[in-house]
Every structure is written in C-alpha cells, then in structure tokens.
Amino acid sequence: MGGVQPRRHRGGGVRPAGLPPGLRRRRWLAGRLNRRLDPYPARPRLRRKRRSDGRGQGPRPSETGLYPRAAGRSGPSRLQRRRGRTRCDRRHYRSQRQPRTPGLTAQRIFITGGAGFIGSRLCKALRATGATVVAFDNLHPQVHGDGAAARLQEGLVIGDVRDRAALQTALEQARPDIVVHLAAETGTGQSADEPSRYCDVNVVGAANLIEAMRALETPPRRVVLAATRAVYGEGAYADTAGVLTAPPPRTVEAMDRGVFDLIGEDGRPLTPCPTPETLPPRPGSVYGSSKLMQEYLLQQSPAPWDHVILRLQNVYGPGQSLRNPYTGVLSIFCQQVMAGRTLNIFEDGEIYRDFIFVDDVVSAFVAACATDAAGGQIINIGDGRATSIREAAELILKELKSDRGLTISGDFRAGDVRYAVADTRKAHDLLGWSPQISFEQGVAALVAWARNEAEAL
Ligand SMILES: NC(=O)c1ccc[n+]([C@@H]2O[C@H](COP(=O)([O-])OP(=O)(O)OC[C@H]3O[C@@H](n4cnc5c(N)ncnc54)[C@H](O)[C@@H]3O)[C@@H](O)[C@H]2O)c1
C-alpha cells in the first residue's frame, strides 16, 4: 500500500508518520491532550499520502472496476497477508452472511408492476416482514393474458403508470415510506418495433411517478428502481493490454459471416469480463435506453428521497409469464419443449448469461429497501456465474425428460448480447446479499411450476 503506515506506541494511540519529527511530535501530543479533554474521542484517521504519480489518490484501480480483476496484482495484498487471509477468504465469509433486513414492519411500501413476475413475489416477501404493501399494476395482457383476474391480489390497485392522475390518487391513498418501481415494458426485441410504446411506459411512466411522488404531502423517503444489465449493452471486455472497455454492439455484417465473438479495434479478440457498475453505459436496444433513462430521471430530478438502482441480470423462476414471447428465455424454452418443439439455439450456442433465481432477486429488493447504506447507489444483482444458453437448454430438456433435443442453428438477432455476466461484489459488500439458489435448483423449480401451469390450462 502506498499510504502512511501507523505506528503503535507504548502509551496507546497512533502516531502519524510521514511528517517532520518536530511537527509529528506536536500533533501527536495535541492529539493525546484532546483525547484527555474529550471523553468520546474520534478514532484517528489515516490519510493516504499524495504521490506524484497520482496513485494513492481516491480509490485504487481495482476498486474502480476500470481494470479487470485478472489484470490487477495477483495474490494477497500486504495488508491481507498481514491479516492472514485473502480476498477469496473474505468472499467466502461474506457468502455466509445473511442480508441485513431489519424491521420494515411499520413501513408502507408502494410497488408499481406489483402483479408481475418479480413484483408479485416481492409483495408477498415484504408483507411477510410486516410491511403494508400496495401494488399498482395495469395487468398488461401481454404478461397476464386474459386470465388477469387470477392475478388479483390483496392490496392491488389496477392502474397505468402512463395515467398520472391515477398514480397520484393511488399514492395519496397509500402514503408510502418506500416506492419500488417495477412496472415496465420488458421485451428487448419488441422494443425495436414499438419504440414509442416503450418510451411511453418506461420513460414517461417513470417521470409521472416522480412528479406524483413530489406532489405528495409527505413524499417517500426511498425509491428503489428495477433497472437492468441491458444498460451495459455488450458489457465489459478486456483488450490485449488488459484494459477494460465497453465495446459497441456487434454488426449484422460480422454475424452474417459467422463471427460472433467481439473483436477489438486492433483486430484482436476481446476477452469478456464480469461487468462492474462503473462501466460506462452503452445500451444496444431501445429497451436498454429507455431503462437507462429511468435511472437518469431518478438521479437528475431534485427530490427529498434517496434512491437505489438495482441492475438485474437474467431473472428466471416460477411465475415468469409462459405466454409472453418477448421475455424470459428459460420460460420460453420450457414452453417450447412442452409443446413438443425442438429448441433452436442461436449463434454457435456460446451466448452466455448470468441467470439469477427470482427469490434471490426478491431478497435483494428487500435488502435494498432496508439498508440505509444503499442510498444513492447503483448495484448489480446477479449470480456472477456465466451459463451458456446451450447448457441452460440442455438442463431444461433433461428436467422435462424430453428427447426432442436442440439445434445450434447459427441464427442470430441484431442487438443480442454475446456475454452478460455481472460483477456482484458491490451487492455482497453493501447489501450483505448473496444468491442462495443454484442454477440446477432454480431450473428444477421453474420446470415443476411450468408443468403444473400447462396441466392447469
Ligand atoms: N425479468 C428479468 O429478467 C428482468 C431483468 C432486468 C430488469 N428487469 C426489470 O424488472 C421489472 C419487472 O420485470 P418482470 O420480469 O417482473 O416483468 P413482468 O412483465 O412480469 O412485470 C411487469 C409488470 O408491470 C406491469 N405493467 C406493464 N406496463 C404497465 C403500465 N403501463 N402501468 C402499470 N403496470 C404496468 C405488468 O402488468 C406486469 O405485471 C421491470 O422493470 C424490468 O425492466 C427484469
């Protein structure tokens, strides 16, 4: 570490180093005197020494996420060696910790999109903490089909986020302490065909919500946004020098030639990395752009509340609409296999995703509502593990005991992302959150639910 090292003294306390001896002693004595006068002395703060090469100022490069982990120094740091444990050990300890979700008991929580896949489970989880929950949802037919009534739940207000007056009335009645904004149009492919609808619901809807919250006599104290990894576009890659970069979307022309991997400006292959929150956004779809605009609206509108932005990776699990052809690749696979179809795997099958089980996402939202330190933060929520679409399809075929198999077709969709995996360290550190459900367990739960749904139809 380039910082000043503390020295322990027999008399206790820390004597600052790096100053001329006379001044050092005067400051040390003054500190001791102050401590004698002050019954609750602040702990001495160690300041990093400024260096001419700029190191030691602000966070270390590995903390900014601007450099891939592989490019950083390997092995434990001097501090870690002194403490006798490594970063891997620390990650292990963290994964043992439970999320900090202290009393939401007396809280009133308003959830837009609360009848949806994530929202309906989140409502239940929050009610279980003792919170009073109101869901606001228009029961979008593309998501809920004609059986929308089946989704009717306690505390549901049917309304559209595009209807500012309806939002205002619902908020005035709910008087929420916390608002969770989930309502959205969610189909990446569909967003290219219907940009005005996507902007209306996602952008204007979020702006309406902000204005309606501002007009409340007592505005909420926190707003939690369901954001998406789509804001990263292709996400983080390292070039041959090990520098992290956010490449532009792949071209149709390259994919036509069967070139699916990303190539750097120097013509050499780029290496995919887990994407940190600090990577500059570069959405490759109207959906991603409209969701990024939601983030900007929250960040840039002066407001009395603080906000938490959770960038979700690929969420899957029981309850994800089997009838919506635009979202949820695993639900779509289940539905296709149960209909006796052969799965068509795009590109060369080596498209990677970070699949995260819905109940883990729900516990991340609960932690985001309850953790003070999350205020003002953008946090990736994912498993942090890369699973190829081919592997996922094979697991679903196995769980459904289907012999229909799959085809790796080489087909592709413009705007599709090749490798999408999150760096989830911030979620571990800030929320004390880590996923609890393995991909195998999650797919088994999804398949069991999808089977039941199909039988019930
Ligand atoms: N599921 C994922 O993989 C994923 C990944 C990243 C981000 N997200 C975000 O999480 C949120 C919830 O996603 P989900 O998977 O539960 O989707 P979902 O479609 O199941 O839920 C969205 C809910 O919003 C409602 N809704 C849609 N338009 C509305 C409108 N105009 N007014 C009021 N309600 C409306 C729908 O009826 C639905 O109940 C979305 O904001 C989405 O962008 C989801």
UniProtKB/TrEMBL annotation:
InterPro entries xrefs: Epimerase_deHydtase, NAD(P)-bd_dom_sf
Pathway assigned to this chain's UniProt record: Bacterial outer membrane biogenesis; LPS O-antigen biosynthesis
Domain NAD-dependent epimerase/dehydratase: 109-241, 275-382
Biased composition (Basic residues): 1-12, 79-97
Sequence segments annotated as region (Disordered): 1-104
Family to which this protein belongs: Belongs to the NAD(P)-dependent epimerase/dehydratase family.
Protein name stated in the entry: NAD-dependent epimerase/dehydratase family protein
Organism from which the protein derives: Brevundimonas pondensis
Lineage: Bacteria, Pseudomonadati, Pseudomonadota, Alphaproteobacteria, Caulobacterales
